[in-house]
Amino acid sequence: MTFASPIVPVILSGGAGTRLWPMSRPEMPKQMLALTAELTMLQLTASRAHDDRFAAPVVVASAAHADLVEQQLEAIEQPAQLLILEPAGRNTAPAIALAALAVEDKASALLVMPSDHVIADVAAFHAAIAVAMPLVEQGWLVTFGIAPDAPETGYGYIRTGEEIAPGVHRVDRFVEKPPLESARAMLESGDHVWNGGIFLFRADTFLDALAAFEPEMTGAVTRAMVGARRDGARVTPDAEAFASAKAESIDYAVMERASRVAVVPVAMGWNDVGSWDALHAISARDEAGNVIHGEVIALDTTDCLVRSDRARVAMVGVRDLIVVASGDDILILPRGRGQDVKKLLEAMKG
Questions:
Q1: Which spans in 165-258 are helix H?
Q2: Which residue, 25, 77, 101, 331, is most buried by CB atoms nearer than 10 A?
Q3: Cα separation of 148 and 150, whole Å?
Q4: Strand partners, 8
Q5: DSSP SS3 for 30
Q6: In whole angstroms, what is the distance from residue 270 CA to residue 147 CA?
Q7: Coil, strand or helix: which one is 294?
Q8: Cα–Cα distance, 176 to 159 (Å, whole number)
Q9: Between the CA of residue 62 and those of 88, 131, 162, 180, 235, what are the distances in Å?
Q10: Domain locations in the chain?
Q11: What is the distance between the alpha carbons of residues 265 and 194, in angstroms, rounded to a whole number?
Q12: What is the helix (H) or strand (E) element at residue 113, kind and residue range?
């Protein structure tokens, strides 16, 4: 399917990926790492929106990662048309507003994607985009709902309402990350999908909605772009103006409040790779159920994830462990406790 004008991919690359410490660090966050393939997660994200239906991407990233972003995209011959460098992190609503203000044609459709997610079935993703586009051109804000396969408590959910076009439903409501019993009930109901944080809408549609619900945020981001410094593809918004924007997610700022919000349910092999447990689950495993990268010797070892970028790791007679050695740091924890890495980092600060 072809579209009236190319879709502009907007890649959000401001995340820290703290749950994948010690590989993921502030200076080299998760999206800059090759965790699931030879390409980094940023490169994979750019690659899945790269054909004649898509324009060159607009990337919103931390100013500290400007060189990394440029190097990685140039390595796959997909340079950004704009690299917007956030002076500070203000969550997704201001970040997307920066991109929407920066594109020249405000009627452009923006495909907003986090830079650190996995999509195994890119063809299914593209098909979902094609299904969504007629609604986008009519001024709808569209999100993509991930077909759930487990009662996951770490994701937000979307309850799908009436079908308003083939494969497209009105959003009935957004649901916060639920307790286990609620997650089971939503899975069994068949009318809930995971909120994957991927969106498609026209730049002007999003900006109009943001101005209606968050006028002060819109004003702050607009001032930041008016005062932005430009150096080739790099755009650095005014730091003082941008810092005055409320830090808010697109879900809270716009999607949960607007009336013309639609969802396209899709099964596309999506995973946010939010923990070492998630990486083990989606990675190719050896005959003993292990995922091993680096210089590792594993004897009588089963169902473990072991990664090392320098140190030699030797394991004997263990199972269900996560062992990650990066630089001078070594992480060891039982598989299933990957979400506790964030707690560990907080304890280390103290």
A1: 180-189, 203-213, 215-226, 239-243, 250
A2: 101
A3: 6
A4: 110
A5: helix
A6: 9
A7: coil
A8: 11
A9: 7, 32, 39, 35, 11
A10: 8-271, 276-349
A11: 9
A12: strand 109-114
Cα angle value 161/195/134 (rounded, 5°): 60
DSSP per position, 245-282: S----HIIIIITT-SSEEEEEE-S-EE---SHHHHHHH
Q: Give the C-alpha separation, 68 to 345, whole Å.
A: 24
Helix (H, G, I), strand (E, B) or coil at 290: coil
Transcribe 57-101 into DSSP letters: -EEEEEGGGHHHHHHHHHHTT---SEEEEESS---HHHHHHHHHH
Q: What is the dihedral of CA 188, 192, 196, 202, to 10 degrees?
A: 160
- Cβ burial of 188 (10 Å; 0-12, 13-18, 19+) is exposed
Question: Each residue's pLDDT tens digit in the chain (350 positions)?
Answer: 555 689 999 999 998 889 999 999 999 999 999 999 999 999 999 999 999 999 999 999 999 999 999 999 999 999 999 999 999 999 999 999 999 999 999 999 999 999 999 999 999 999 999 999 999 999 999 999 999 989 988 899 999 999 999 999 999 999 999 999 999 999 999 999 999 999 999 999 999 999 999 999 999 999 999 999 999 999 999 999 999 999 999 999 999 999 999 999 999 999 999 999 999 999 999 999 999 999 999 999 999 999 999 999 999 999 999 999 999 999 999 999 998 999 999 999 87
- CATH of 8-271 among 3.40.50.2000, 3.90.550.10, 1.10.540.10, 2.60.120.10: 3.90.550.10
What angle do the packed helices 215-226 and 203-213 form, to 10 degrees?
A: 130
Helix (H, G, I), strand (E, B) or coil at 6: coil
- CA 84/CA 210 separation, integer angstroms: 19
Q: Strands 305-308 and 291-293, how do they pair?
A: parallel
Please report how the helices 92-102 and 215-226 are oriented relative to each other, as an axis angle in degrees rounded to 10.
50
